[in-house]
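Usage

Read records sequentially. Each one opens with the input sequence:
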Amino acid sequence: MGGLGPLFGPRGVAVVGASRDPGKLGAAMARSLSGFGGFLALVNARDDAMYPSVGAAAAAGPVDLALLCVPAAACAGVLAEAADAGVRAAVVCGGGFAETGGAGIEHQRRLAAIARDAGLRLLGPNTSGFLAPHARLTASFVPGAHRVRPGAVAVVAASGGVNHALAFALTEAGHGVSLAVGLGNAAGVTAPDVLDHLADDPRTAAVALHVESVADGPRLVESVRRLTATRPVVALVVGHHDVGAFAASHTGALATSWRTTRAALAQAGAVLVDDERELVDAVGALAVTRARPCADPGVGVVTAQAGPGLLLLDDLRGRGIRVPELAPGTRETLAGLLPPLTFQRNPVDTGRPGPELGAVLAATGADPGVHVVAGYVLHEPDAADVVAAVAEGLSGGVPVVLGLAGTGDDVVRDRAALRGSGVPVAADARGVAAATAALLADARARTPRPAASALWRAPAVPAARYDEHTGKALLGRLGVTTMPRHACAGRAAAHAAFDSLGTAAAVKLLDADVLHKTEIGGVHLDVSTHAELDAALDALDAAGARRYLVEAMAPAGVDLVAGARRDPVFGPVVLVGLGGTVAEALADVAVRLAPLSPGEAAGMAAELAGRALLAGWRGGPVLDPEDLGTIVSRLGDLLVANPLLDEIEVNPLRLTQRGLIALDAVILTRKADDARTDH
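and closes with the structure output:
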């Protein structure tokens, strides 16, 4: 199929199902298109004042795009007629398709087939359309959509309603949009299609992406990665609280679609946000400026009012943003600019905006630990010219994000002037924090990632049934440490194994079909005598054991979970989190797509809420991130190299004073037929 030019930049548009009844969908669409400068044809066979068919309209002028405002059952016939008339793109606005089930599924299948066979680009069905303000094209039936201003932010939304809500919010915030698309059921045009189109759009400086579900994970990732090479993408993923059905192992339960989608988009370079307001603040900021790439950027905070400054600082720290103490030279400069009682270490409190504000911003931005300056002032034109002050503060090239609070036309004018000079502006501390966080996340995403080592190559392994013993043997081939152990077919062998260890033992049921041994009494720890061993074996026999694993007890430490699995949408993914039997309850995890380098994987532990436990908490062991990164990277490589391996879980992977030790291993395989459909 061709590009999306006929859809978003048509020479002519036909509204099929146009109506004189102001309450009808076709009438609303016709009103929205009244400002379109190209050929506009209204089609309704029952109205003599309109064209009787798409073919008749196409004979009168160029029709590249047809907007279908007719019932679902009639859409396929109209689309076929449009294709025969040479129409190259269509938007199907109404509902009644796959989202309703039943006959709607067949209606949508027929639409998609006609579009595919004709090479016609189909947007929808079940969408409220799109907005292209630069082209004066409002292909939407939503009232007020024609008032959305042209701007530099593009919106790609799964939902037509979210698309319009974001377009309205971006206009209210002073940004406007370059293109705003609601995908609806996405039977034809998908999010990657639009993202690929935007990669070549000179009017688009940043993209807001709203995701509800993903049909083709690798293609979405590739489109985002290609786009972020030239312009930032800010993504809002729906589904945080949809836990879904638990899979067969902890890794499957924790690597939910929401987490995996967010992780995949972040890995591709997108900035992640949690709600619509933050999306507007973040994408608006990135549309006007970007910070220099940096792996660990810091923020300098400058406030002319202490109370809002405290709110800003609190929000930044809550996001895990580094606010470093300023260097002695910077503090010396600030001391010459500000009264002695003001706070000057970071944040810098000027007391109120004054003539020195520009020099204070410049000095803070020049500090070696500062990569973005986050400021807040009330609009007090008699005290300071904020626009001139910020221009002075930008002299060093470090971005400034400013909160400018106030009301009236002067405030609106100054905010517009600041945005025009490359300064993101918000009305409150939260907006400043969200915009600042976006600049920093984008700077981190653009930092070159560590290259994968050429010394490691994942081995080819059989798609056998792995119990804990054979699973740990495979981990040993990856360089993962395990405790000494023996697989035992009977009691005599178990007693001999116990004697050979010469230490307290863990005695376990050994069965590839049992994934969670603790739930059926299949694990007994700290077995120190032969009598305790017999008692443990009796309990294992009662649980159905036919074989036993006798293993030396591991030293105390902090339990992690590390794993790799095949996500049905994105393919191989890896996971790191707090482990043990409470892994599912805590759900404190980090996810990445595989393959990834050890250096990339090494950063995953820093995302965990419980990361303090890995840094010598109360005299405990200290994690070497590179050791963890090597294990996780190799787990991912193993899955990528072996299509019949479906899932690998190491839980617990215990952090001890001796390093990381795998205490359990679950490996699942699948049939060859399933592997042929893998990504």
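Summary fields computed downstream for this record:
- Residues 387 and 418 are 6 Å apart (CA to CA).
- The first helix runs from residue 5 to 8.
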